[in-house]
Amino acid sequence: MGGKVVMMVAMMLCLWALSATTEAVVTEDEPGLMMNFYSDTCPQAEDIIREQVKLLYKRHKNTAFSWLRNIFHDCAVESCDASLLLDSTRRELGEKEHDRSFGLRNFRYIEEIKEALERECPGVVSCSDILVLSAREGIEAVGGPHIPLKTGRRDGRKSRTDMLESYLPDHNESISVVLEKFKSIGIDTPGLVALLGSHSVGRTHCVKLVHRLYPEVDPSLNPDHVPHMLHKCPDSIPDPKAVQYVRNDRGTPMVLDNNYYRNILDNKGLLLVDHQLAHDKRTRPIVKKMAKDQAYFFKEFTRAIQILSENNPLTGSKGEIRKQCNLANKIH
User: Fold this and answer.
1) What is the reported pLDDT for 171?
2) Residues 54, 60, 65, 70: is their CA dihedral positive or negative?
3) Peptide bond just before 215 cis, omega within 30 deg
């Protein structure tokens, strides 16, 4: 009897070892993200994306801001899998149609990059890698740091519209909520402060800031800045489709720099979250440091973008490589 028990235990251990070995092999066969993922399958991939972004930026300067927003709006929502790019269907509203995605645009240019890659390497480069790498090139185009990023992402098949409010902070939410949402994806307080430095470039639509102007002007706003804001946003209920906006940074509106932090310390932040960032005891010391030290801002910004870009990606055999970035592949 004892011999049988020993034999059964030995067999179970052998099976466990075999299972563990098989598991290890599967893991090795399906690598995760890595630097230069396409070096063998499409060596020109990153160069093609870089050149396409440069060409598009020369034609349309605001594309750089779009690339930068895309990485946040896609990668912060559960997975960095290009779900943001999917069009709405009869059954499902696309993420880009949701209120949290207000102002996102230039998605057609992602398709231009995809078409250029398909001509060179059909069916190889994912839309999620295009989204991430175009953000990197957009950051450089507006004077930001070069950020080494891993590749090897694959594309998801469905939108996550129902999750947007859980993951993406609203501009009216408290800084505590914003900190918590970023923390949930691995971004700490310095990383959050650095990512919000993206507000150094681009513009804010009047829809998002009139609550600070009407019916009464928010007393926390710098009074010297208010006349400009009122001039740009003359209506208390602006038309969302109208071109009514205020530049985030009047000094260097097309440059990603630490001027944003000096502005918000001077109460010139357009959004409520900008004001809170400058005055909350958890973030103010970091804001002051970044206002004085652009190298520190760039260091933390680089780290935060890297964390964001590696948020729960689909790799290996998961997901797919879309033929068009706005549509999931047809299943035959």
Assistant:
1) 79
2) negative
3) yes
φ/ψ of 327, rounded to 5, equals -135, 135
DSSP H helices in 147-186: 164-167, 175-183
Question: How confident is the model over 237-248, as pLDDT tens digits?
Answer: 998 888 899 999
pLDDT digits (tens, 9 = 90+) for 64-97: 888 889 999 999 999 999 999 999 998 888 999 8
Q: Which run of H or of E encompasses 45? A: helix 45-59
* Distance, CA of 164 to CA of 62 (rounded, Å): 24
Is position 73 annotated as part of the catalytic site?
A: yes
> CA angle 140-141-145, nearest 5°?
15
From CA 241, how far away is CA 317, in angstroms rounded? Answer: 41
Residues 6+ apart with CB under 8 A from 169: 177, 178, 181, 182, 273
Residue 157, Cβ neighbours under 10 Å: how many? 15
- 98 vs 4: which has the higher pLDDT: 98
Please say whether the beta carbons of 122 and 150 come within 8 A.
no
Statement: residue 304 has pLDDT above 60? yes
* Catalytic member of 60, 73, 275, 332: 73
Token pair for 156: 């998801």
